[in-house]
Write a structure and sequence with these properties.
Helix content: over 70%
Largest sheet: none
Structural class: mainly alpha
Shape: elongated
Radius of gyration: 17 Å
Distance between the termini: 46 Å
Number of strands: 0
Length: about 60
Amino acid sequence: MTDKQTVIELIERMPDNVSLSEIIEEVATVEAVRCGLKAADEGRVVPHEVVKRSFAKWISN
């Protein structure tokens, strides 16, 4: 599916009274998820244990 088709389907599922800002927000969310999935597929992720240690440090400060 092309990006254009994805956006069209996304908009068609939304109510008729949806605002432009809501459409933009939803499209941005879809793009962010796609980027995250691509990064994960490429191995550009932080291991769970590293994230847990980082959160523990942030919380204790």
